Amino acid sequence: MIRFPLVALGASTLLLQACMFSPGMHMDTDRLISQDSAENSMVEMVQITPKLIAQDQAVNDRLAVPQALLDYSPENYRIGANDALFITVWDHPELTIPGGQQQPSSANARVVRDDGTLFYPFIGNVHVAGKTLEELREIIATRLARYIEQPQVDVNVIEYNSQKIYFSGAFENAGILPVNAQRLTLLEAVGQAGINPQTADLSNLQIIRDGVTYRLDYDRLTSMPSRIGDVYLRPGDKVHMGLNDSRKILVMGEIGRPGAIPYRTSKMTLSEVLGTVGGPSPLSSSGKEVYVIRGVENIENEKATVFQLNAQSPSAFILANQFEMQPQDVVFVGAAGVTRWNRFISQLLPTATILYTGARTEDEVRSNN
């Protein structure tokens, strides 16, 4: 009984499988395109060309600060609960510093109660929450005029405790920033909070106001002419600097050091990403098979886009240096043809050897019997 055809059948089966699923990390673009036309595939192939780069740059240049943020203009400070006020009535130290000259100003402060009121001699309880310093000065002066001739009144806040702005995310000084009478811009506030360059995603600064989230590409808006300097913060605003550990770029295939790298800014380019991981392998990578796969996290609802770069082109370096990455992009570098063939042989021969050895052993056992 001849057993070698069994080996041939096994090898032929492996050969057929190898032809269907080529060993090594290789993306068959012809197969993707045919699937797209025949089966409405969820993948769209796009070549990285100078025209594509120009279109992307034009879109990025139109990025602007939301008009709703620019429309807000700070008004005069309004008193709130727990603010400490120092009320001066000129020529009447018994009203200004009832505790005596030796005590600090804070000891003679009038703290606004939780219900927005405070008590003041002669005039009793006064509702002060929501009023400006000038409005409160007028109220006190008018009521004191019943007891004091032409009272001269001044009101100052010595402790701001009622209004706050909240900072979270990749800030060195995340937490609460009290709001005072000074107008505070977004840039000033970010400067005070301090950005942590190691953990920050500079493309993802968020301002949450009245339940609405405004997203700003902080890095781009501060490095190009924009109106980000005209944005003022409002009491109650929440400012969040995104963390780059939640948004990454995955690099795989014929790469020196495959893995995930943090997404730090929208100005990260394909060449920077490839350089960070050691670049394509000079021995096993294919210069024509450099891909950026975008939209895989939402492929159930939208098409993923596969951008292809022909790295063998003389202009490839320029294009890679201008192609800007997005969070959750996947960079894939395919294997060269000789690498795929070598892997095919290395996977086929051990399996064929096992089949041949098994068949030969079976023949020897039968012949001995």
From TrEMBL:
<dbReference type="GO" id="GO:0015159">
    <property type="term" value="F:polysaccharide transmembrane transporter activity"/>
</dbReference>
<dbReference type="Pfam" id="PF22461">
    <property type="entry name" value="SLBB_2"/>
</dbReference>
<protein>
    <submittedName>
        <fullName>Polysaccharide export outer membrane protein</fullName>
    </submittedName>
</protein>
<keyword id="KW-0626">Porin</keyword>
<dbReference type="GO" id="GO:0015288">
    <property type="term" value="F:porin activity"/>
</dbReference>
<dbReference type="InterPro" id="IPR003715">
    <property type="entry name" value="Poly_export_N"/>
</dbReference>
<feature type="domain" description="SLBB">
    <location>
        <begin position="248"/>
        <end position="333"/>
    </location>
</feature>
<feature type="domain" description="Outer-membrane lipoprotein Wza C-terminal">
    <location>
        <begin position="336"/>
        <end position="364"/>
    </location>
</feature>
<keyword id="KW-0762">Sugar transport</keyword>
<keyword id="KW-0732">Signal</keyword>
<dbReference type="GO" id="GO:0006811">
    <property type="term" value="P:monoatomic ion transport"/>
</dbReference>
<dbReference type="Pfam" id="PF02563">
    <property type="entry name" value="Poly_export"/>
</dbReference>
<dbReference type="GO" id="GO:0009279">
    <property type="term" value="C:cell outer membrane"/>
</dbReference>
<keyword id="KW-0998">Cell outer membrane</keyword>
<feature type="domain" description="Polysaccharide export protein N-terminal">
    <location>
        <begin position="73"/>
        <end position="157"/>
    </location>
</feature>
<keyword id="KW-1134">Transmembrane beta strand</keyword>
<keyword id="KW-0812">Transmembrane</keyword>
<dbReference type="Pfam" id="PF18412">
    <property type="entry name" value="Wza_C"/>
</dbReference>
<keyword id="KW-0406">Ion transport</keyword>
<keyword id="KW-0625">Polysaccharide transport</keyword>
<dbReference type="InterPro" id="IPR054765">
    <property type="entry name" value="SLBB_dom"/>
</dbReference>
<keyword id="KW-0449">Lipoprotein</keyword>
<keyword id="KW-0564">Palmitate</keyword>
<keyword id="KW-0813">Transport</keyword>
<dbReference type="GO" id="GO:0046930">
    <property type="term" value="C:pore complex"/>
</dbReference>
<dbReference type="InterPro" id="IPR049712">
    <property type="entry name" value="Poly_export"/>
</dbReference>
<feature type="domain" description="SLBB">
    <location>
        <begin position="163"/>
        <end position="240"/>
    </location>
</feature>
<comment type="similarity">
    <text>Belongs to the BexD/CtrA/VexA family.</text>
</comment>
<keyword id="KW-0472">Membrane</keyword>
<dbReference type="InterPro" id="IPR040716">
    <property type="entry name" value="Wza_C"/>
</dbReference>
